[in-house]
Amino acid sequence: MAPALVEVPLPEAINYAKSGTGAYKEAFQSGPKSFRADAELKGTEKQPPAKYPNYLPTWNDKKYPPLEPFEHYEHGKDADASFSNLLKDATKVDDLTANTGAEVHGVQLSKLTDAGKDELALFVAQKKVVAFRDQDFADLPISDALKIGGYFGRHHIHPTSGGPDGHPEVHLVHRGADDTTSRDFFEERTNSVTWHSDVTYEKQPPGTTFLYLLDGPAAGGDTLFANQALAYRRLSPEFQKRLHGLKVVHSAVEQADNSRNRGGIVRREPVTSIHPLVRTHPVTGEKALFINPQFSRRILGYKKEESDYLLNFLYDHLAKGQDFQARVKWAPGTVVVWDNRVTAHSALLDWEDGARRHLARITPQAEAPYETPFEG
Fold first, then answer.
1. pLDDT for 40-49, tens place per residue?
2. If you placed Cys at 288, which of 44, 142, 229, 260 could pair as Cys (CB 3.0 to 4.6 Å)?
3. Closest C-alpha to 122, from 82, 71, 72, 151
4. Which of 367, 349, 360 lies closest to 25, judged by CA?
């Protein structure tokens, strides 16, 4: 008689919310229970106070209703492809790699006209990710920064992160001074790479997205970006054809559970959405893979083993594709703008001196993902 299937209990010694294991991977703890206000406002023996205390995270119990559909207007369609408004004051424009990313000096994002913003949307869609140096973004009133971001779409309010007081539309990436939770994480993980596109579980995930540095370590904490349009083009035509028409379930449940398990907030009840595995960019017309291991859960209509097999192949393809990836090194005054529709990214947890890493993200939502017919 064949042995029956047995559910093996998890070892009691491992706190899975603490270690970051499971479907949702978080490399360090960030929530009301781990936040140390004195260390952030006054500094510690080894670390200075936060440079931007107005951007320190706050949490409250306010609940938000489910997001309603809205009609997104894509400003990149109105752009002058010569970028005469966006780059007229640029002193240096360098490609990060031969196929992904750029770095720009001399352009002040806060001074762009609407025509310049239209061109920004197109430029970022083409380059996938652009690092703008020496920006005044962090020094603006938060409401002014939000006004700039709001040009590109409806602001997304993150369901589990802390935000600056009075500005829940700002998503904060915050690892506090002398934070040591990474030690717990690396007890159960060999690396901190967490490829994802932001909040793909929403019906209308983000497009043009802004992330700007407030505080950071002297070295480390870089962000990796992968070009998911080029990742799609690297596949054979027959494989591309097989991917078209497939739909993928994206889930917020694991992120919400993780927040609850560590004493955090859940502002809005978690949702799942179904998106095409291959999506089309509304301006460039490029097709791109639209999957990520943080939020993609299953291919609709496939059995679990079949879905896992194909998704894991694509995740592996994305992770190994260093020839369609770029790495952004943060520096004071840096604003990184990328298109979440055609990229995936991952922060790196590779510094151990307890330095604070504090960034702010403005996340305008875009159109619901769609695909156009396969073109062999």
1. 999 999 999 9
2. 229
3. 82
4. 349
